Amino acid sequence: MKTRQKSSEELKQTVKEKYGQISEQSREKNASSCCGTGCGCDTVDYSVFADDYSDMEGYNSDADLGLGCGLPTEYAHIKQGDTVVDLGSGAGNDCFVARQLTGESGKVIGLDMTEKMVEKARKNAEKLNFNNVSFLLGDIEEMPLDDNIADVVVSNCVLNLVPDKETAFRETYRIIRPGGHFSISDVVIRGDLPESLKEDAEMYAGCVAGAIDSDEYLAIIRDTGFRNVTVQKQKKITLPDEILDKYMSKEEIQNFKDSETGIFSVTVYGEKPE
């Protein structure tokens, strides 16, 4: 039997491999799949998860691979001069939007565990001639960042992919300055997902099976020490039948739809006490 630790490492490797593939593609190619080609759901339009960034100041189409599930920067209360850290920064989309809000006096740091994504983000920042946006290679469960470095942390459809969410939020708490806060968009569930969905590593990389119950998710955040934890926005996600067909029988699909179980994208806010 596999140990839990080994299983977590295997899942993280799956995510790395899939997002490494996605980094080499354009948004147009990714638009036909739920998390990019090869993520185990390549017949689904990712718009069931993603929100439209194109009208936001600072938006850069080269950095938008269509992989998010919300607009955390829109709700993050970022101010001029802030230091912002984006967890799972991908090609840099949220970082460049955040940089528009911090201005030249601020600082934006993107952290991602996929080498090719970091490389792509750095190239995008170089093309934009931004000298106050940087990208680091690292693991959210063990961030290569100093304590109390960030005024604001943002993240977009990433923490649901992290096996150890308790450690991820403890690390998030560690890097936020007292009085600072986060705004994180993520995928959560209500009720019990079918075991076949939970166990499939491809769906884990595809932003669904790595998600946990919404009450558990919020409890982890509060137990970490964050205060004033609120859900800023939520949207129910409907997976098309052609995806569910891969994991369930027709009867199981109907029972799933008739149940109170649901998949939601949520944007959550929390503060670190002074």
As a percent range, the share of helical residues equals 25-40%
CATH topology: Rossmann fold
What value does the average pLDDT take?
A: 81
What structural category do the secondary elements indicate? Answer: alpha/beta
Summed up, the domain count is: 1
CATH superfamily, please? Vaccinia Virus protein VP39
Counting H and I runs of at least 4 residues, what is the number of helices? 10
Name of the CATH class? Alpha Beta
The CATH architecture name reads 3-Layer(aba) Sandwich
- Terminus-to-terminus distance: 45 Å
Tell me about the largest β-sheet.
7 strands, mixed
Keywords:
22% strand; 274 residues; single chain; seven-stranded mixed β-sheet; alpha/beta; Rossmann fold
Short description:
The chain is an alpha/beta fold. The protein is 34% helix and 22% strand.
Task: Outline the structure in words.
The chain is of the alpha/beta class and about 270 residues long. The protein has a single domain, classed as Vaccinia Virus protein VP39 (Rossmann fold, 3-Layer(aba) Sandwich), CATH 3.40.50.150. The protein is built from ten helices and seven strands. Strands 3-2-1-4-5-7-6 form a seven-stranded mixed β-sheet, sandwiched between helices. Strand 1, helix 3 and strand 2 form a beta-alpha-beta unit. Helix 1 packs parallel to helix 4. The longest helix has 20 residues. The N and C termini lie far apart (about 45 Å). The N terminus is likely disordered.
Topology:
Layout: H1 4-23, H2 27-30, E1 83-87, H3 93-102, E2 107-112, H4 115-128, E3 133-137, E4 150-156, H5 165-175, E5 176-190, H6 195-199, H7 201-205, H8 214-224, E6 227-237, H9 241-244, H10 250-258, E7 262-271
Parallel strand pairs: 1-2, 1-4, 2-3, 4-5
Antiparallel strand pairs: 5-7, 6-7
Helix pairs in contact: 1-4, 5-8
GO molecular function: arsenite methyltransferase activity
Organism: Halalkalibaculum roseum
GO biological process, one term: methylation
